[in-house]
Amino acid sequence: MPDSSRPIRTAVVIPAAGRGVRLGPGTPKALRALGGTPMLVHAVRAMAASRAVSLIVVVAPPDGAAEVSHLLHEHPLAERTDLQVVPGGQTRQESVQLGLAALPDTIDVVLVHDAARPLVPVETVDAVITAVRDGAPAVVPALPLADTVKQVDPQPQGTPEPVVGTPERALLRAVQTPQGFDLATLRKAHDTVVEGEGATDDAGLVERLGSPVVVVPGHEEAFKVTRPLDLVLAEAVLARRRATDGYV
Description:
The strands form 3 sheets. Strands 1, 4, 5, 6, 7, 10, 11 and 12 form an 8-stranded mixed sheet that branches. Strands 2-3 form a two-stranded antiparallel sheet. Strand 2 and strand 3 (37-38) form a beta hairpin. The protein is 31% helix and 21% strand. The protein is globular, with a radius of gyration of 18 Å. It has helices spanning 39-48, 65-73, 92-101, 122-133, 183-192, 202-209, 228-244, and strands at 10-15, 33-34, 37-38, 53-60, 82-87, 109-112, 138-144, 151-152, 163-165, 173-175, 179-182, 214-217. Helix 5 (183-192) crosses helix 6. The protein is an alpha/beta fold and 248 residues long.
């Protein structure tokens, strides 16, 4: 439990070591330009917009830490937010673990954020932090589903897949990031759960421990830029923000 005699400190880990092949060949996804600025810079700024965040650790490609560090120092943050870049691992879980290892013992709350979600509103970031500070060991922002979901019996690509069930849509949520955690809980999850044991995100690792995870409202602009069409949508959202909100 945090020491009640000192302020609760919050850090963010942003794994940015992935190649992002679905977005097409070329530059790693996190370094793709969005409105003339790398997506990673937008993602870092989105986290730094919260006054509760005092430290951001970016986990770069194993051989790209110097390049990422140079890039981020060309786009400085407000003085209240410290920035650190560390080299990542071969998998996302390894990269998050390396980011967690870089956090000082004075950190109590940690957020893990996808670099490919560059436009998360600060209200979403603050809602996650508040829920963790209020006692939840793990918190995810999420949205209700708009589409019906079918469970299928997977088949080789291009082959029709038999439907085996239709989950009740009202009980499902599409999860986003940043996901927030009590730091000790997330470290225990990464140290305990082996990658590939049914968990596809950090909250899933905590679930595998048997610890509770709660949901707070997400935001439609916190979508993940994974495919070329997502990039078109992100450009449109960014252009609207720059025209109406003075966003840089």
